[in-house]
Amino acid sequence: MRTYRPFIAVLTLAAALTAGAAAQDLTLPNKAKDTLKFAVIGDSGTGDSNQYRLAKVFTDIFPRFPYEFVLMLGDNMYGGESARDFQRKFEIPYKPVLDKGIKFYAALGNHDSTNQRMYKLFNMNGERFYTFRPQMGVRFFALDSNYMDRPQLQWLEKELSASGSDWKFVYFHHPIYSSGGRHGSDTALRDQLEPLFLKYGVDVVFAGHEHFYERLKPQKGIHYFISGGAGKLRRGDVGGDFTEKSFDQGYHFMLFEIDGNQLHFQAISDQQKTVDSGVIARRQVDDKAAPSVPAAPAVKPVPPQDKPSGNKPSTSTDKPAAPAPATTKPAAPSTAKPAPKP
């Protein structure tokens, strides 16, 4: 036994140092009360070891930062969507927080069947687009960017105008601003949505689709985040005039905390490292339409779908056919200014 004691001591010390480093890496205010905490993941549903590795970091941080709910930015299920797929790609990796009653609110991506809206644990209540209010003064709007048709736009304008919320967050899959080389900005979608965002004072917009992290320079006073690296990764694909901060060298998720008129954020990698953090002030009525950067140059609309690369055969990820009413449910489940660097 004596022979192994130094080795055990080294392992214990290493574990303690690792835990200490991870704890120090949590830079949000993380107040014990009177704030709203939530998390964001995108493009998560692969069911492979990369998703599971990040999910372990994501669920392990919960005791230290007890987020109250999670936004899912689409591509929640790659490939099959059988009962076993829902278990392997969602229920198992996120089981530690699902068991604590944490709700996930999903938006649909181009890899997702519209039948996902019937899956109880995605909390879509049978709708492609919906809104929820976790507390007074804060409202979230989930959109289906696969089919931005007139009924959805009319619904969005009605809900935004009637919300009366101080904080307005909108999330969907395809980014209307992006520095990604593979996809880039969906300017056609931007033409449809941005006027409503400006008119009704949207504060923050989340999107996925791009398999990296990007915090963009505020566009006309609105803050945009791309978070599509919870299960997929595309290295060396981000960077341009829109970029304020980016990360494409690992998988990631995001944490947020609303404290009055301030929104604190932190992006964390699968290596438990902070890749970005900071604070955003809530927009005021008198400056809601003031551009914070020069207008973007006119560009040809880029459809939200994969582009062929080199001589590799391209796999189509075109938007699926328009949704029809579901007849069956999926199988039931088996159960800003930068903050100082840490």
Overall form: globular
User: Reading side by side through the largest sheet, how are the strands ordered?
Assistant: 3-2-1-11-12-13-14
Output the CATH topology: Purple Acid Phosphatase, chain A, domain 2
How many helices does DSSP assign? 6
How many strands, what sense, and barrel or not for the largest sheet? Answer: 7 strands, mixed
Kindly state the mean pLDDT as a whole number? 81
Tell me the number of strands.
14
CATH homologous superfamily?
Metallo-dependent phosphatases
Structural class by helix and strand composition: alpha/beta
Helical content stands at: 10-25%
Question: What proportion of the residues form beta strands (DSSP E)?
Answer: 15-25%
| Total separate domains | 1
Distance between the termini: 40 Å
Roughly how many Å is the radius of gyration?
20 Å
**Architecture in CATH?**
4-Layer Sandwich
Q: What is the class in the CATH system?
A: Alpha Beta
Given as residue ranges, the uncertain stretches (5+ residues, pLDDT < 50) are 1-24, 286-321, 324-335, 337-342
Order of H and E elements: HEHEHHEEEHEHEEEEEEEE
Model description:
The chain has about 350 residues and is an alpha/beta fold. It has one domain: Metallo-dependent phosphatases (Purple Acid Phosphatase, chain A, domain 2), CATH 3.60.21.10. Helix content is about 20%, strand content about 20%. The relative contact order is 0.16. Mean pLDDT is about 80; it is low at about 1-25, about 285-320, about 325-335 and about 335-340.
